[in-house]
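Request: Could I get any protein with tokenized structure?
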Amino acid sequence: MLFGKTLLATVAALLTSPAFAQTEMPFALDWKFEGPAAPYFQALDAGYFSDAGLAVTINEGAGSLDAIPKVATGAFPVGFADINSLMRFLDQNPGAPITAVMMVYDKPPFAVIGRRSLGIEAPEDLMGKVLGAPPPDGAWAQFPIFAAETGIDMSEITVEDVGFPTREPMLAEGNVAAITGFSFSSTLNLMRLGIPADDISVLLMADYGVDLYGNAIIVNTDFADSNPAQVTAFLAAIAMGWKDAIADPDTAIAALMERNPAADPALEAERLQMAIDANVLTDFVIANGIGSIDDERMMSAIAQTKSVYTFQSEPDAALYFDPSYLPTDGSLMLQ
């Protein structure tokens, strides 16, 4: 924490001098104000952003793809989105001023969530069943890779387009046998709807040969080129928010509840802990800190994407992830 505060204090001294005003940095989330968003509110309430001269507001999203066009158009300088969807967006919109700068979900929460009572316990059980999938869902976007890695014949699965609000209720009512979604979101939403935990099967795609990364902090590159110190300070504050949430999740959840008082604090605390344990605090992150990626794994992820998606141009990892804005003072270490 000391190193991170030193960096932020240094940046703050520069940014709050008479020549600088606070930099407006609205932050577009991928989803609603739920447990995994708590670290960002913790960073806000702890003053990590403001201490660095950043005026940060945090805005809800509507899915893993939602923040990408918002950041690409410059409506938001920073956001949180699925890096795999970002690859496809950049392929379809060459030259768009957007890239990922900090990996957060080192192990992505992309999952197929089914019910054992409806016959879903393994990937092959999906064949002959109905799968509910919201079209903008990040997990659904990666489902063809999961299918290829597990030998599933997608032609033998009936896919029903569902909305995010109806996804878990349809599974709870038995109208579909499984859904795609983020593991920590769909699992707890089903339990809240009265489905027993032992009836829920979670097929985490990363456990079935899918090498993809998950959601990352993304940035408008025009903004980043003009404000490199601010972007680095923002990433340092994000890392400290996650470090605080890992050390004291109750305080982070309290910050979340200030923005979403209708939420169930116990459920959101469980959702946050699931994200920490399964997606954020991996062996790689413990050893290397939050934010960076392994180049060899990234190349494997691109190769898997190529197996199910035809790129218009040869994919280039340098377009999708730029580590140059990550702080180098030790603030990325979470333990």
